[in-house]
Amino acid sequence: FFFGICFIMDGSTKEVANPRSGSVVSVADNETVIDSEEGEIQLGNPNIQRQKEDILYHLGLSNLGSDLALMFGDTRFVCMGGSAVRAEKFANKLATRLSISIPTGMGLTSVGKTERFSLFKIGPIISVNHGMGMPSMSILLHEITKLLFHAKARGVSFMRIGTSGGLGIPAGTVVATTEGVNGKLESCYEQIVLGKEVKHETLLDTDLAKLAVSLSNVAGKEPVPCVLGKTIGTNDFYEGQGRFDGAVVSYSAQDRIDWLQKAYDSGVRNIEMESTCFAAWCHRMKIPGMIICAVLLNRLEGDQVTATPEQLQQYSANAQEIALRVIEHKLAIEQ
User: Binding positions for phosphate (predicted)?
Assistant: First the structure.
């Protein structure tokens, strides 16, 4: 392969040119698109039909057991973060920020079951946690996308809002991701499907990312440090991210700094554990997607998160503030 372009040499895939980037990516040859009304979520699985029961097992919902169109048909944004507690807090923050009143004596409650994910609906926005890492996020992405398909929601955008380790930028800075890259610094998400390797391109909506940066410093609002950058998505927190503070280490200090510096030089500004899965899904499903993550430390200076609880709370709030400004801006345009 060439740097940044993924090729797969097996008979189950086809090569497709991306009209925006000009790069070529291999996709499943039998991937199809379900016909939907203009602007509605489209699936790539003909086995999923609205008139047949589809159990969204990990969400505790089904298309025939609930009126998903009534519950979620007006959804415009799906905001995702790792923690269930953070998802609930963000939902309450949305209610306050968008002046959505909650009846006296009542509070926001999660929809469906909560063993794996906690989903909250406030106005035209879903706030839900995706757990930690790409396997957990992949489950949520499948089921939340099917939920929106059954709900006949239109014009939906996905947001991942969270925290990360930074590269060459100070703690508290928010990174608006332009594309996800893996640990090899390739712009693709790798899966093993039926024993074969399949890769998907990981571009995100650059207009949304640029909008996030432009809204970070506007008149009348507190400026929030925010930059564009690529985001590495790894399969684990320690060795996959080149840390020296895990229980084992299999590389030298020079190997570590060489990899981090190479990543920085290629445009990477932060590292987390979901970006390639999320970006590939949004690109594959043609859903506008953005990742807004605050950095907790500069990994070029160390591995330990030494910020105080108050500082960590502020860093997380920075990412949420950028996401809120994007939501407010987009909703205002539609009115």
Answer: 116, 160-163
